[in-house]
Amino acid sequence: MRNWLVLLWLALLAGGAQAQTSQFTIEGRVTYAASYNLGRWEGSNTSVRGTVRWNPQTGEASGQVCVELSRFDSGNPLRDADARGVFDVNRFPLSCLDVERLTQTGEDAVLLGTLEISGTRRPVRIAGKLTREGSAYRFVGGFNTSFSEWRLTPPSLLFLRVNDPVEVRLEARALPR
């Protein structure tokens, strides 16, 4: 009987050891949706790049995903120039997310990490969907934020000022390395 318990314990340990952390290359797009009193627009940036390690069984994750702040395109060059000024891209060319955890229930997922924008670091929670695509994964999620959370001054023109909140969406593909 004692041998059977020892074998069961070893089997459980071996099963836990199989919970594997995998490394992924991340690429994707970040989009913001903003508004002012007379309208709404979106800006998109396809410079999302990084490397993440993730254990699907535990949700533990580590790594960094960055975006070049100068590469947002809203279809309006003047608005994009204002955004580069708000972000102070000459001093802070990148915004980076230090990934800490990715948990999944079915297709619903929550990505936790610390995001840095223009020298300010804050924890973020990005809720979304995570789907498997062969050996890769696709994450689509978002969060709302405000300029004041990042110590940024909203852009304005004459009497128009960009409103809070700003919606941020992340679409990322994780490819195994």
In terms of per-residue confidence, which ranges show pLDDT below 50 for 5 or more consecutive residues? Answer: 1-18
Instruction: Note the total helix count.
Output: 2
Secondary-structure element pattern, one letter each: HEEEHEEEEEEE
CATH class: Mainly Beta
Q: Structural class of the secondary elements?
A: alpha+beta
- CATH-defined topology: Lipocalin
Give the helix proportion (percent range). Answer: 10-25%
- What's the N-to-C terminus distance? 44 Å
Name given to the CATH homologous superfamily: Lipid/polyisoprenoid-binding, YceI-like
Mean pLDDT: 89
Mind telling me the C-alpha Rg?
20 Å
> Do you know the CATH architecture?
Beta Barrel
General shape: elongated
Q: How many independent structural domains?
A: 1
Major sheet attributes: 8 strands, antiparallel, barrel
Strand content: over 45%
User: Strand tally, please?
Assistant: 10
Characterize the structure shown.
The chain has 177 residues and is of the alpha+beta class. It has one domain: Lipocalin. It has 2 helices and 10 strands. The strands form 2 sheets. It has an 8-stranded antiparallel β-barrel. It has a two-stranded antiparallel sheet with strand order 8-9. A hairpin with a 6-residue loop joins β2 and β3. The chain is elongated and about 55 Å long. The N terminus is likely disordered. Keywords: Signal. This is YceI family protein. InterPro entries: Lipid/polyisoprenoid-bd_YceI, TTHA0802/YceI-like_sf.
